[in-house]
Amino acid sequence: MTSKRSARPRVFVLAALLASIGGGASACPVPDSAAVSSAVQGMFSAMAAGDLKAASSYLTPDFYIYDGGMRFDGDGILHVIQEQEKAGSVYAWTVTEPKVRFACETAWITYVNRGGFTKAGLQTPLTWLESGVLQYRKGRWLIAFMHSTPTPAATKP
What we know:
The structure is a single chain. Strands 1, 2, 3, 4, 5, 6 and 7 form a 7-stranded mixed sheet that branches. The chain has helices at about 5-25, 35-50, 50-55, 75-85; strands at about 60-65, 70-75, 90, 95-105, 105-120, 120-135, 140-150. It has one domain (about 30-150): Nuclear Transport Factor 2, Chain: A, CATH 3.10.450.50. The longest helix is centred in the N-terminal third of the chain and has 20 residues, at about 5-25. A hairpin with a 2-residue loop joins strand 4 (about 95-105) and strand 5. About 15% of the residues are buried. The protein is an alpha+beta fold.
């Protein structure tokens, strides 16, 4: 029979072991769909304003995106946007219909990106179906991965 005195150290050791496995490592952030959507929209707004430094502040160091059938890292996609803006294109992107799911410090967002671009005064509305994976780091959501698929252009009857 185990006495109360000898059981206490075992309980303490068990509690310490469970905490080291992950139970006491770090608390998950409160699931905040608006904060996740705002991170994506913030990156889009910074890109549209031509502020690549601000845009990259929304990305993890290992960020990448599949867009237009190609894989780009953060610097790569920002360079493409910058070159198109230098050539006279003005972009607008808007996160609509966001759906966000959480797994502790990871969020997955799907949304419809409604926007387009203007060049030489001609506006071209565009819509993309997009998804992203964000990670909670240092108190904020950062984008680790995105995928963008343009919707088919509307056909006229």
